Amino acid sequence: MEGPEHITTIKVSTNASQYFVDSYYAALNERRNTIASFYMPPAAMPAGTLPSISFNGTQVPTAAAMQTMFEQQMPQPHYEVQCYDCHVVNPNCTLEGTHAWPAKTGKNMTILVAVSGYVKYGKLKEAQPRAFSETFLLVPNPAAAAGKQRMKNVKEWLIQTQTFRIVV
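RESULT FIELD:
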């Protein structure tokens, strides 16, 4: 099977990362009730495994638990992304038993996204900024590849692995 051209993987990974970073941190800041929709559903994971989520050294068991943590257990966050970078990890990733994009689109890849910036928890004017570092492994969403991306809120890329750390 012929894969995508190198320039295609660069364009797709860059665009996917930019869209992901913009929409994910906007959701954390303003639409915390949508956080779980950014993660790969357990049914689409190999052997029913769950996405791996580590938040400041604590394992979070599910995407729903991550959303609940942000909605009910944490003060309002205010994330400010300073920079991000992306790298293609696997240019030809197709999850067994799921739909895939046509190979030449470049959308069957896994993407490593590294993000850093500042976060404030609580009232914006009173909270102290804290530096953070976060890493994601994004995978193609099988529902989007199956043609459901035209449906509202179906994302092309989902989180399979995430590690968040307060740096300072």
